[in-house]
Protein 1
Amino acid sequence: MSSFEFWYTAILIFAMTVALIKELFKPEITVFSVLILLLLGGVIDEKEAFSGFSNSGILTVMFLFIVAGAMQQTGILNRIGTVLLGRQGSSTSNTLLRLMVPVASL
């Protein structure tokens, strides 16, 4: 690896980390932008850039993000949370009991 590739990659990773911590953009935009910049900078080739998408573990995580996003958009997570945890202001012991019963049954 040449000095240019090293420093280019290090700067991009640092910038990506800062952007993710400060939430400057959506995480998927930030990460994909760095992938494209690494591709354009000649650090990786097309095969390397997109080989991760064929990994079944990555595909599973991507699918779970899609399902979680859909559940959040529909508001079902709020309803499930209210059913499981009760309304705000409930006693701590009541909230713990409402959470422990489903978890213990699973």
Protein 2
Amino acid sequence: MSETRSYPRHVKTDAGDIEFRLMARADEPAVLAFAQKLPTHDLLFLPRNISQPKVLSAWVNEIERGAITSLLAVKNGTVVGCGTLVCDPHSWSPHVGGIRMVVSLDVRGQGVGRALSQETFALALGAGLERLTVQMTVDQQAAIALFESLGFKAEALLRDHVRDIDGKKHDIVVLGHNVAQVRAQLEAYGVPGAVQH
């Protein structure tokens, strides 16, 4: 899915120099350490708990199968973020991709999440997807604002959709982006290639 982007790639943020690179099996211990430091609440919008070693192994298997592309944000050799693009070419929705993104607490508000979301969005554009979705708990206001700034719009509210380890239920908001429509509008205005980074 990532043939149009080359990695590693470096970005300057308020948190310092961040390297983006594609996740591989060798990154499993570093990603597990990153996931285990995240507040549990930050993991609720993901379909599975990535702080569990067996879940992480299954994730790497999906990367190797080509169903998932995961970008790691690395600062001074430590994973500080992960942006993932999930596509299923064998589903009824092969034109739709899901973006999942988590960033460590110590670099939040410093441009890492914005750079990672833009890079993951660029990967999705390169994959030729027509629609993108992203989901998060309704109280993750900064993340919602970040994706809205990329053109995502709220499309659904799933009430009591996830349950945390204390048994408390949380609502999930689903944001969508019609990439094909935006691309067509830009081309109509004479800006071909404007959505390709």
Protein 3
Amino acid sequence: MSAVSPDLLRRFDLSGPRYTSYPTADRFVEAFTAEDYVQAMKLRRSAAAGMNMPLSLYVHIPFCESLCYYCACNKIVTKHHERAEEYLRYLSLEVDLHTAHLGTGQNISQLHLGGGTPTFLTDDELRSLMSMLRRSFNFAPGGEYAIEIDPRTVDVKRLAVLAELGFNRLSFGVQDFDPVVQKAVHRVQPAEQVFALVDAARQMGFESINIDLIYGLPQQTPESFDRTLAQVALLRPDRVALYAYAHLPERFKPQRRIITAELPTGAAKISMLSRSLSAFEEAGYIYVGMDHFALPNDSLAVAKRQGRLHRNFQGYSTQPDCDLIALGVSAIGRIGATYSQNAKTLDAYYDLLNQGRLPVVRGLALTRDDLLRRVVIMALMCQGQLQFESIELAFLIDFKSYFAKELEALEELVGQGLVTVNASGIEVTAQGWFFVRAVAMVFDRYLQADRNRSKFSKII
């Protein structure tokens, strides 16, 4: 990892999609309705008859007790915990509408509770939620059952409750251990608190512990972030997600509280990233791809070695590609060749459910070209390679003719040593893996058409 030069990082200091889906969510349209979503579920139910086709579940819990200034998530900041009880009632209505179309007892191989702050819910509310989900779905043994955690909202007893409820993966939102940075983003949480929680989680037998970090926050310097990286190396989580902060105050109101003059320069951000890559390599982490690092024995690193990586709306996964049921306000799901998104406000979400309707307000029915490009992009982002013949057989095309412009555009990346192209396929080089989003972007028809990339995060 240390072979990645700051010069190359600077050259690719540009914006682009994260490709948790293709086409990306900014391409969703309101012409896709709840009725289209119901039709997709009916098609799945008929196709799945007599087959074991597992589902993935995502549940969005939007509430937070306090505002983190860097946040770009769909959240509701409130001290009124009674709002969660009402929200759970509506989640139950949404689940019932799904099972009416899919049938009960669908196998679940993956669950992710995100937010907001899922641990805003009390222990009893979490029990109620999991009980409701288990009544409607069958949670398969050996599945990945994850929850995002704000360390300020849990203690050792709460971790024990999460283990009791069947969660086996935890993701702690840390961002930065530096107290000055924490104060600047309104998220003060002592490092000792995180260390104690991770230690307790390990003793309880959680299979994987992830730590989220952000570089580019106000008051950060390469030297201060070095200290955070050293603490993370001591903490030794199974996985680390390292994200670049994208300052877009015109789109995300909380970010207007950040003092622009306190943000690090572009050169300082590049330095933080370069030093982070070296620090994680020295600490023994494998670069999985797309901001993710894992210890060599973690299932994500193993899947990377074995060519079994997949991507979904939560990022890289070891679980086979499968349909995703998304529950809650603003949640995004995928069924068959469709994507769908729920209403983004609680009022709209509640209103649709009160009418007995699924709260889907937009989405996309993928075209044949979308499906083809999705396969190409996911092969590059997950396996780092693709064979022309397999794509040609699956879609009955001549790859070199169909993607003539894209192969021509790839030549620049070939010259930079990021990819190799030969008669049989494309392969991302070891160095190119750090810039795999740039490789995928070449095959994004929508992105190449409009070139408006300012709405995306940096690709490295």
